[in-house]
Amino acid sequence: MAFVRNQWYVAAYSAEVGRALLARIILGEPLVLYRTSAGQPAALADRCVHRHFPLSASQLDGDTIVCGYHGFSYGPDGRCVAVPGQQRIPRTARVSAYPAAEQDSLVWVWIGDPERADPGLIPRAPWLDDAGYTTVRGMEPLAARYELLVDNLLDLSHETYLHGGYIGTPEVADTPISTEIDQEQRVIRVSRRMDNAACPPFYAQSTGIGGRIVRWQDIEYYPPCLYVLHSRVAPAGVLPRPDGTDPDGFHVEVVYAITPSTETSTYDFWAVARDFAPGDTDVSAFLHDSNRTVVLQDVEALNMLERVIAAEPPGTQELSINIDTGGLAARRMLARLAEESACLPAPVP
Amino acid sequence: MTRVYRIEWVPGTDRLRGICHCGAAGEAHDPVSMWQWLLAHPAHPAPGDLRPGTA
Description:
The complex is a heterodimer of chains A (349) and B (55). Chain A has helices at residues 146-154, 159-162, 170-174, 201-207, 281-311, 325-343, and strands at residues 7-13, 22-26, 29-35, 41-45, 59-61, 64-66, 73-74, 80-82, 97-98, 100-103, 106-111, 134-142, 178-182, 187-197, 213-222, 226-235, 250-262, 265-274. Chain A is an alpha+beta fold and 349 residues long. Chain A folds into two domains: 7-121, Rieske [2Fe-2S] iron-sulphur domain (Rieske Iron-sulfur Protein, 3-layer Sandwich); 132-341, Naphthalene 1,2-dioxygenase Alpha Subunit, Chain A, domain 1, CATH 3.90.380. In chain A, β13 and β14 form a beta hairpin. The radius of gyration of chain A is 22 Å and the shape is globular. The two termini of chain A are 27 Å apart. Chain B is of the alpha+beta class. Chain B has one domain (6-49). Helices cover 16% and strands 25% of the residues of chain B. Chain B is built from one helix and three strands, in the order βββα. Chain B has a three-stranded antiparallel beta sheet with strand order 1-2-3, covered by helices on one side. The A-B interface holds A 176-185, 317-322, 324-325, 328-329, 331-332 and B 2-9, 11, 14, 16, 30-32, 34-35, 39, 54-55.
């Protein structure tokens, strides 16, 4: 499937973008990210126009990147402000500047026509920057196409088999799902409600619940980049109150940003935000290490799957069953977005 | 009208039930043919026309 351009993608966590130059490749485009002295994130093409030296391997001077090879200097808008040894700056001496926005402790960049970049289109993950939640997070590079991670996250029945002993129990694979495509809001929802399930170690140790649980998994996927799993666990029989409040439930917002790097590699940003045990460093360390282990189990599986798929002849058929309803919905929406993106008129040079 | 397409797993069976935003509903044995039926809106095939699909 083609990349979906003219979209916002998570390039980094806010904490990663500072006064050091950060290199990321997004949708095949090399970017350098930094923060201006006014605190704004900036994203430029990571290649000097002169001899294509990576600007990320250069130096910041104030808000200007000075190329580490011959000193071409670029402001945060991508315009070259100085070249070595001469007064005249060539008219074409500029690098692309990417619209960048910071929201919910994430730095988003717009890949596509800058004129179409509307920060109002960025999907929200407010828990990541909410004082009422404690968040652990990480990023694992994936040597696989991003579609494999979308497939993986839209069908959580794999938890039972790939993540047993961490987050998987038999009930996950055994419980039917409901799936929605909302064309206007551009979101796919997959819901799995388990009324009486074993409590996996991930939740037993972090919440202290000893017996069986109510476990709800409500997924919202905002193609192409943002995925949120609203996870609610509580002792079996304990439900939200009739007025909608839920003081007896434990809530975890599991957020993924799925950012394609190249056609066969992906940035797998993951975060786990909880509304219980606030600030408890032991719980944080446990959830961080457990979720990272789970993510690395996915990474190992998907890297292997990428190698298998890459070696298959074109048109090799898969078999889809009921558990794939959400993943197939995501594929359809991504294909539609890619098609729409390809049909947009090219920007005027 | 919001354009929400919904697929439920019929309790106790292996069948899927699709509900279109227009109110049309149909059943299928696999998600590929279920989505094809739903996303054919407004020209939903008759229930007997549902065929197993491939991904």
